[in-house]
Automatic annotation (TrEMBL):
Residues 55-226 form the Oxidoreductase molybdopterin-binding domain. Keywords: Metal-binding, Molybdenum, Oxidoreductase. This is Sulfite oxidase. It comes from Nocardioides guangzhouensis. Residues 271-356 form the Moybdenum cofactor oxidoreductase dimerisation domain. Its cofactor is Mo-molybdopterin. One of its GO terms (biological process) is sulfur compound metabolic process. Gene3D superfamilies: 2.60.40.650, Oxidoreductase, molybdopterin-binding domain. Pfam families: Mo-co_dimer, Oxidored_molyb. One of its GO terms (molecular function) is heme binding. It comes from the Bacteria.
């Protein structure tokens, strides 16, 4: 008999040249919401407005029965409950998190998956136990290569049934700011963000920040699970590809004026308009942000605001003399590694790391 799961064993697909957004994409977009861009006004994103990306179902977790196993290539495996985790020294990190698929929906042709525009980002204060402390307690073997995180959520993806799992190189796992987090913005993790415990890997795209964490396993071989194979930059499905790791620089403008309900185009009054936004990069500190009010024909340097920590977005401001008519505003970030946002993003099959600036349509008109 044929395996009934064969109907789900279909490879990832790229949209036909004129193919509109599919109902499957709409379904994913309704489950996984982005940051309402006006919330770029806040340093810390309020609970419920941080973007969400969940591949499968949000699991129901009983906090009393929850355990975290730390095992694999370690000297002293651990089995922790919430109280013993909370009793360890705690640390808070201010982190801008972004989905690797942010910007995917603007690619041509469009890879079919969660169709993000630009809002797959948010900034939170995450509190928990430094992963380096936990790993020091268990004693990591000298020949360890990867640290593998397992979530309590379970699903099937391109025919492969799995618990959500990601491997992180040991050198990155030992970096000071990786957290086993149990608080977001001073309260327990909201259920959609991984209650009761998740991983936070500052500076990396979202996929490694495993939610509903139940196990940390140290491996002496490179972890080759689905999520590590899926998040790679490929032109062809058969290619090996480069792994997706750190966040590319991006600047986003807080949309000025007021919105048109359907198109989100902005309406602004003529005269002096203050522009504001946020910029971040997981590779190196943001050094410079440029703003264009003529769709990229000319650029002016924005004023970059205070540094609120290595892993968090920075504010920027600029001034615009708005004249009646239609305008397209743009912003682009430069970081200290020399990376700058491209005009056109390099295409890849997964639709990852598209940090091309998508612009803001503004109509300047009197009341
Ligand atoms: N267990 C688990 N962890 C997960 C995911 C998931 O589906 N399951 N999604 C990942 C992806 S792709 C992203 S972008 C971030 C999103 O985190 P957030 O929903 O808290 O913003 O979680 C990551 N961690
Ligand atoms: Mo993601």
């Amino acid at each position: 008999m044929d395996d009934p799961l064969d109907s789900l064993r279909v490879p990832g697909r790229v949209a036909d040249p004129d193919e509109g957004v599919t109902l499957d994409e709409v379904g994913l977009a309704a489950r996984n919401h982005g940051l309402p861009l006006e919330l770029l006004r806040d340093d810390v994103t309020p609970p419920g407005l941080h973007y969400v990306l969940t591949h499968y179902d949000i699991p129901a977790v009983d906090p009393d029965g929850w355990r975290l196993t730390v095992d694999g290539a370690v000297d002293r495996p651990l089995d922790l409950d919430l109280a013993s985790l909370a009793a360890m020294p705690r640390h808070t990190v201010h982190v801008t998190m972004e989905c690797a698929g942010n910007g995917r929906a603007a690619l041509h042709p469009r890879p079919l998956s969660q169709p993000w525009l630009t809002g797959a980002v948010g900034t939170a204060d995450w509190t928990g136990v430094p992963l380096a402390d936990l790993l020091a307690d268990v004693g990591v073997a000298d020949d360890a290569v990867d640290v593998v995180f397992t979530g309590l959520d379970h699903g099937i993806e391109r025919g492969e049934e799995q618990d959500y799992q990601r491997g992180l190189p040991v050198s990155e796992a030992l970096a000071g700011d990786v957290l086993v987090a149990y608080e977001m913005n001073g309260g327990p993790l909201p259920v959609q963000h991984g209650y009761p415990v998740r991983v936070v890997v500052p500076g990396w795209y979202g996929m490694g920040n495993v939610k509903w964490l139940t196990r940390i396993s140290v491996a002496t071989e490179r972890f080759d699970g689905f999520q590590n194979r899926a998040y790679r930059l490929r032109q062809e499905a058969s290619e090996e590809g480069e792994p997706v790791t750190r966040i590319e620089p991006r600047a986003l403008l807080e949309p000025p004026g007021f919105p048109d309900f359907f198109t989100r185009a902005r309406v602004v009054r003529p005269g002096t308009v203050g522009l504001r936004g946020r910029a971040w990069s997981g590779w190196a500190p943001v050094e410079r942000v440029e703003v264009s009010t003529d769709d990229g024909a000319t650029w002016q340097d924005a004023e970059v605001g205070p540094d609120r920590g290595r892993w968090a977005w920075r504010s920027f401001t600029a001034t615009w003399q708005a004249t009646p008519g239609e305008h397209r505003l743009r912003a682009r970030a430069h970081d200290a590694s020399g990376r700058v946002q491209p005009v056109d993003a390099a295409w890849n099959r997964g639709g990852f790391t598209n940090n091309a600036d998508q612009g803001v349509r503004v109509v300047v008109a009197d009341a």
